[in-house]
Amino acid sequence: MFGLQERMRISGKILLFFTFLIIIGCGFSDEATISPNGNPKGTFYSLTVLNRFEPGLDAEKTRGKDLYSFYCTVCHGESGDGQGLNAYNLKSQFGVQPFNFTDVSAATQASYAEVKKVIARGGGGGK
Fold first, then answer.
1. CA dihedral 49, 105, 117, 38 (to 10 degrees)
2. Average confidence score pLDDT of the chain
3. For residues 36-64, b (16+ Cβ closer than 10 Å) or e, as one string?
4. pLDDT, tens digit, for every residue of 70-100?
5. How far, in Å, CA of 74 to CA of 107, rounded?
6. Could you report the per-residue pLDDT of 43-71, keeping only the tens digit for each?
7. Which of 16, 39, 64, 72 has the fewest CB atoms within 10 Å, measured from its CB?
8. Distance between CA atoms of residues 40 and 118, nearest Å
9. Gap between the Cα atoms of 127 and 114, Å rounded
10. What is the pTM of this model?
């Protein structure tokens, strides 16, 4: 019927077709978590920590979880409450308390641009 080369060529085309379908299907994401005025919806905790553990994480959320775990948990804690392992040192030596991402009132006070600035700079990035 078909030779080995012909079967491999057909298999390659089928694989390419399904890969294309998967890429197209994954390109559509859920609604953004940005409100009409440009600020994030919800608390910092819900936007950063809780979203990371939902089933079906996309690549960006998974990468964000990894980055938060590597760079942020030492000061902000795994739950984002500002009680990480290094929080005591920051407070006692520098008078700085790591931000509590679970504080709903604080989340509404910062603009989206300010949130991005703090995330990019870390530490005293909001000052």
1. 90
2. 72
3. eeebbeebbbbbbbebbeeeeeeeebeeb
4. 888 898 898 888 899 998 988 888 888 888 8
5. 21
6. 555 555 555 444 566 777 778 888 888 88
7. 16
8. 14
9. 10
10. 0.48
**Placement of tokens 């509590």 in the chain:** 100
What residue has token string 């979880």? 65
In the block, which residue shows the tokens 């990468």? Answer: 63
Q: Are 53 and 72 in contact (CB under 8 A)?
A: no
Domain ranges of the chain: 1-30, 36-121
Q: Say how far apart CA 116 and CA 70 lie, in whole Å.
A: 18
- 98: tokens are 């790591």
The residue with tokens 């299907």 is 25
Copy the structure tokens of residue 79. 């739950």
pLDDT at residue 42 in the model: 56
